[in-house]
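We now fix the convention by which a protein and its fold are recorded. Think of the row as the fold of the chain written in a discrete alphabet. Here is one such record, which you should read through line by line.
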Amino acid sequence: MEFDITDAAPEHKAGFAADRDSYHELRHTFEEFKSANDERLARLEHGRGDVLLEEKVDRINRTLDAQHRRMDDFALKAARPALDGGRRPLHDAAHREHKSAFEAYIRGGDADGLRQIETKAMSVGSSPDGGYLVPVELEHSINQRLLPISPIRSIASVREISGSVYKKPFMTAGPAAGWVGETDARAQTAAGTLDALSFPAMELYAMPAATATLLDDSAVDLDQWIASEVELVFAMQEGAAFINGDGVNKPRGFLNATTVANASWTWGNLGYLASGVAGDFPASNPSDLLVDLIYALKAGYRQNGNFVMNRKTQATVRKFKDSTGAYLWQPPSQAGGRATLMTFPLVEAEDMPDVAANSLAVAFGDFQRGYLIVDRVGVRVLRDPYSAKPYVLFYTTKRVGGGVQDFDAIKLLKFAAS
């Protein structure tokens, strides 16, 4: 069935039109950037650098960043699910009971309904000291919102668990095999080598505050309010931890793994390629580094590869060209899409380091296979009307963990001489 924008709600039509206009504006600005940068390069080749032209290129580059950020914002808003889009229908009696009891707890602190529900469900740790589980549709709404907001979560593998630790066996060396004839004897083969990886779920929290007026206003959707208050905080903390987390009371980020030169790669380490220049790309043919990084991955991983870098690094690689003069960075091919670098999607993660001496500023890999995020089922809310009077605090927690699960699936670019 075709979708006619004229039949959409006014706010949807406005958002669609704004997204489309931003997309065309981005592509138009990129054409201006290419023209100005080509002129800059031509003058440099003839030894006639122009400060004003350099400033113009940088100004257009910043405009591209701003437009790209605006497109990302539209994409995030479009990706946000309705709160009634959970897996359990609202007409389910038990679900309606939970939702009603949760609203009574949030608005007035009446925990009797939730206590009875969790007692019937034999829920572990359901005492008031630990808060109460939110309704299922609110939990999944928060998790779905985090998916597009948190850049690594959007490309990694995500698994829900019910315990505190997820243990995953991984075969680092496959069992021996061979060809034999139909009646030939079969010699005993060597067994595979297994490695057990553990992913503990750590506690992530947010504490939004509400006024008594907000809680008394029956027109306010408190589920929506809680989701909107915690999603950005959760996403920011997750995004930083999935990249740089040290594994102490937080997930272990992929940049926190042990790194070795890719030529010396072994299981348990992430391989890196050195740029050859401390703190910079090489002056000649800098894009060759990106080609080498892509082909450092095995073919089975490369086909699902993503580049990960921050906005500042992206502004640098945006100026790179191939041997035919074509720009390697390209804007999204459609509204709501990702920019690409050498035809691979480019994921912008502000927690990635800047290009500096010995920094690991660029990553490339199949993060679906390389990085695992574990979400423990259940988001809890503890109502606190005492600590910040006259405000009511809502201590909201979820448990999440993460770490590298396949050390062969991600490669890094290290800006070092060797």
